[in-house]
Amino acid sequence: MTTNHTPADDRDAAIHWAAVAIGLKESREQRGKPLTAAEQSAFERYQDAARQHGISDAQVREYLRNLPTR
To answer: What global pTM score does this model have?
Structure first.
């Protein structure tokens, strides 16, 4: 974990949290409630962490599609 609480050394965590962040952002936007500045900052950190592991946006979206829903 880096000092900004993103998964720097765990590829599985990086893809998971990047996908969860996309799901949250899209859900909030569909309801007309965009992310707050702090949430957007966290969203960007999670996406960057995934990219640092060589994970593409398409891979994150595929992971998100395969997450179980509750």
So the answer is: 0.85
